[in-house]
Every structure is written in structure tokens, then in C-alpha cells.
Amino acid sequence: MMKKRSGSAVHNFTLIQRLLIVLSLAAVLGLSAVLGFSHQILKNHGRLELRHSIELLTETLDMTLSSGHFSNLGFNEILELLPLNEAVLGAAFADPRSGEILYSPEMLPESFFHNWLLEEPDKISSSDRQMVFIDEHDGLHGVKIIKNGSLLFDVLIDEKHYLKEYRKLSYQLIVSVTIVFVFFAVVVTSMIYLWFKNPLKNLSDATARVSNGDLTAKVEIHVPREFEQLGEIFNRMTSNLKNQNLILEETVNRRTRELKDSLKKLSETQNQMIQQERLASLGQLAAGIAHEINNPASYLYSNSQTLKEYLEVYDRLIELYRRRDTCADSADRDSLNREIEELIKKEDMDFIAEDLKSMISDAQTGITKITEIVKSLRSFARKDELTREPVNLNNVVRNSLKLVWNKLKYKARVEEQLNPVPDISANANQLEQVLVNMLVNAADAIQEDRGLITVRTFCRASGNICVEVEDNGSGITPEEQKRIFEPFYSTKEKNAGTGLGLSISLGIVQSHSGEIELDSEVGRGTIFRLVFPPPKETGEERME
Amino acid sequence: MNVSEPYTLLLVDDDAAVLASLKRQLRKEPFVVESAPNAAEAIALLESSQPMIVMSDHKMPERDGVSLLTEIKNRWPSVVRIMISGFTDMDILVGAINEAEIFRFIPKPWEKDHLIGILMEAAAKYGENIS
């Protein structure tokens, strides 16, 4: 669930705005408190003074009225005697001469003076002849003096009126204090702003540089002290960051070097392993070669010793024949003839003559075998040096069939199922060598006279290009299938093969990035299939 | 016990040319030579009559010389066993000595005099074996 930040713009005031708001609020609150308080004090003071004045007035009136001095004075004179004349809302007075009740100001009706009196006045003082009532109600203060049951004097004073002076004073106070406060707020805000402005800008600029990766950024703040300390901490932080960065960089460089070294070592080890593998297969090959060449060499050598013995016999026989032919004496000739006959019999010259033929035949066989092995090895060793060109497997099949046709035609019928395949980059001679080997193997596997060999070319859905040779011969057992690609492994009779054909073929196919698949079942037949990867897109492809 | 000539000898090698060359060299020596192209035929011959000496190649199709000579050692211990081979791999030599307990090993190619000498020693050894 997503939480939305709302109103961030509204609350996103600058520091100075916040300061102003806070100071203004403080000023308003402070002003209200101070003014409210002072107003209250003034008001209370005014009230106390008023009450005091009223009490003084009441006493004065009381005394004056009871002493009888009053009778000589007119109403207005009496009013002027009142110290609070400005605040007097109205007064009633019984004329001592006529007894008539006079009112001032005149518009106030009589009932006004009679009605304001409450049932229970705050203060009542009484003498024998005179009763004084004082009361306060709703900001109105009244004094009533009654003599012998009739009203003598009545005055009503308005507090509001009386306190007008105080209110004026209070307003003046408000105005002046507000002016002072506002001035103070402006000055304080400006000072704070000036104190904070430069250090904050300095810090903010430096932080921006650091965030952009410039760790050389430094802040220089000297006042106020807190910002100076913050600046020092900031500088320490960037300097530490720089150091950490250097350490990190050094660590990364070291690790990278170590990784490179490891990779180099790994690659060297891999090359060594490949070399060892090559040497191992060379060793295997060499042991095989030693044996394969040694066998014919051993009987060739042995036969050469026998041949020497046979030659000695022939030498002796020739010598005897020559002596006999040059002999004049007939008795000696008969003796020599006997000697010749004995030698022929003893040495079994008929056997030797026949054995010489088989020795020659063995010598030829042995030398041919050695020559074949050497020839195969030469092509085996040379395979990497040969050039590559676009080759069509269908042409390879046709050429190979031509080469081995004489060998195949007596053993099997050959069926071609050649489909259009793209050219591959290959060495045609080498692929022909592989095909010839496969075709000869197929022919050798066929024991009956009328076998069938099928050669197919096709493309797989994966794009791989295949050529396969199928025979309906004896098949290959699973055990033989495991070893069939080993050098000098042969199931054929002695002298029928070098045992190198399939291992060389595999080497050639692998050097073309291909592989050999083998499907075989004893008694049913065998399929050898060469699988080559699809040609790289060169635009020179040709389908045939 | 001295055995009298001719000495009976069975040669086993899958290469007919090797057998022929050996027979040739022994033609005028005091040996009656028989031969077999593989281990199975050699065992068949041994079952009908045992020669004094069996001299076998190692590398042969189906069954090798060490295996053949080991069976001969177990079934007919007095028959003297010789291995003749161009294959001088250490494993084969160890097998030939430890398992087949051969009398001599003849590397290919061989010298005729050396060969005859060893066969004469083998005949004497056979005499010791049966006495």
C-alpha cells in the first residue's frame, strides 16, 4: 500500500519563514499575555481608586449633609464638590430650602434613581437621622443618603466613564509594546537569518559537491561555534571518506590483480591439462605404434636371420655345383654329386624354396603394414595445418564412393539418399578419408555377399548437417562400442586394419567442430553418423 | 630329472607371420613345435596333451597372454611359461610375473641364439618341475 505525502508544499517553509512564524506567534502570545495582564492590573487599580473615591465622597456627603452646611449650597455647587463629577452619571438632591428633589442631568427620570437600589446594598452606614447606602452593580456605583425616610441625596457613578483614562493609558501601552515587539522580532529574525545563512549555504554547497563525488570539498565556517564544529565534523567526514575511498580503491585494485593472477594461473593450468591430455593420447598412440610396428619388425628381423642361414646353404650348394662342373675326374664328380644330394636332403631344399616365398610374402605384408601406420600417422599429425574451404557433403560422399567402389561392389549394394545440404567450411580430402574409412568398415562388417550399405545426407531441425553410413552387417557389441574410437583398437583380423581408422576419423571430425554418433545392434547392423554444426552466416552458402 | 629331446613347445600368437618366423628358426632345433592363433585354441590343445613349454604373445584379440598363462599356471603348473611380446608396458610385466609367474620374458624383436638359449633353459626347468 502506498502512502502519499500530502501538503508537503504547504509545510515546506524556509527556515526564515519558520523563524518569522514562530517569532510572530511568540510575539502575539507574549503581547496578549502582557497586555491582558497590565490591562487587568490597571482596571483593578482604577476600580479600587473609584471605590475609594466613592467612599470618600460618601463620607464627605454624609458629614456635610448631617452638619447642615449643605443647605447653603445650590445643586450644581454640590455637584462640583463631588470629586468624580466627570464620571457622575446622574445625581438627585433634595433642596434643603424647598425640599424639592432636583435631578441632574435632568433627563434622567426619578425612577432611575429609585430603581437602581437593590434590596441588599453592599454597604450601609446609619446614624440616627441619616442612612447611607452604597452599592455596585454592572459597573454602576451608587450612593444613596436617606434622612428620616426621605431621600436626601442620591448619586450614580459610571465606572466605565471613570476608567476611561485608564483605558486610554492601556491602549497607549499596547501600541508602544507592539511596536517594540515587532521591531524586536524583525531584528532577531534578521540576526538569526544572517547567522545561519552563510554557514548553511556553505554546508549545503559542500554537501552537494560531496554527493557529486568531489571528496575534496571543504567548508570554512568560523561563527557561530556550533556551525564551526559542524563544519569541522563535515571536513573530517569528507577526509575520512576520501581515505576510505583510497583504501577501497586499493582493495579493489588488489583484488582485481589477484583475480587476474588466478585467471592466468587457471588458464595456464588448463593449457597444461590440455597438453597433458595430448601427451597422454600421444603416449597411448606411441605404445600402440611401438607394438604395431614391433610385431612385423620382429618377424622381419627373425626372418632376416633365417634368410642368412638359407643363403649360407645356397652358397654351399652353389659352391658344390661349381666344383662339380669344373671337375675333370669322374670319380670326384660322383662324389660331389652325392655330396650335393646329401646337402639337398639334409637342408630340405624344397622346403627352403617354398619357405623363401612365404618369407617374401610375410616381408611384404609386414612392410605394407608399417607403411600404412606411418602414412595414417602422418595425416593424423598434419590435420591442423590443412586449409578449409566451402565443401558440400554430397560431393564428399560421391568422391568417397568412387574411391572405394572396387572394394564395395563385391560385398554390398550401395544406396544413396542425398538431400540438399548447405556447404560447410572443411577440408574435403580429410572428410573423404573419414567417409572412405566408414564405407570400408561397413563393407567389412558385412559377412554375406549381398549386403546393403545406405549413405544419407540431411539437415536436422537444429540446423546440424549430417552424413550417415548404414550397413546391415554384424553390428557392434556395447563393450566394443566403448572402445571403438581408441587408437589401435581393432575387431578386424590381423593385418586387416591398422586400428587407427576410427580414432583418426574422430580426430578429423572433431577438428571440424563435429561429432560422430554411433547406433548399432548386434545382428541388425550399424549406423555411423557424422554431425556438423550449421555453417556461420557468411552469405556464401550454397545449397546442393 | 632330465627330460629327453625333442622338447615339446606350444607357440601362441595372433600374427601368423610371427608364428611362421619362430617355427622357421626352430626347424633344426630339438623342438617339436605346435602353434595356436589365440588363447582358446591353445587351451584346447593343452587339454588333449600338455607340452613342456608354452611361449605366448600378450596382445591378442579376445583374451590376452597374461590371462592365458595364468590359467595354464593354475591348471598345469609344471608347464614352463614364457612370454614374448613387443608390448613392454609395466602393468603387463607385473601381471606376467606376479599372476602368471612366467619363467622368462622375451622382448620382440628377438635374437635367435637368445631365444634358443632360453628355450633350452626352459626345458631344463621343466625337468626340475616334474621331478
Can you walk through the features of this model?
The complex is a heterodimer of chains A (544) and B (131). By secondary structure, chain A is of the alpha+beta class. Chain A is 60% helix and 15% strand. Chain A has helices at residues 8-11, 15-67, 75-81, 110-115, 159-211, 225-326, 330-347, 349-382, 393-408, 428-445, 478-483, 501-511, and strands spanning 88-94, 101-104, 123-126, 130-137, 140-147, 150-158, 389-391, 412-418, 424-426, 451-459, 465-471, 515-521, 525-532. In chain A, the strands form 3 sheets. A 6-stranded antiparallel β-sheet of chain A has the order 2-1-6-5-4-3. A 5-stranded mixed β-sheet of chain A has the order 8-10-11-13-12. In chain A, strands 7-9 form a two-stranded antiparallel sheet. In chain A, a hairpin with a 3-residue loop joins strand 12 and strand 13 (525-532). The radius of gyration of chain A is 70 Å and the shape is rod-shaped. The two termini of chain A are 65 Å apart. Residues 1-9 of chain A have low confidence and may be disordered. By secondary structure, chain B is of the alpha/beta class. Chain B has 5 helices and 5 strands; from the N terminus they run E-H-E-H-E-H-E-H-E-H. Chain B has helices at 16-25, 39-48, 65-75, 90-98, 112-130, and strands at residues 7-12, 31-36, 53-56, 80-85, 104-107. Chain B has a 5-stranded parallel β-sheet, with helices on both faces. In chain B, helix 1 (16-25) links the parallel strand 1 (7-12) and strand 2. Chain B is globular and about 35 Å long. The N and C termini of chain B lie close together (5 Å). The model of chain B has no long low-confidence stretch (mean pLDDT 92). Classes of the chains: A alpha+beta (544), B alpha/beta (131). Chains A and B meet through helix 6 and helix 8 of A and helix 1 of B.
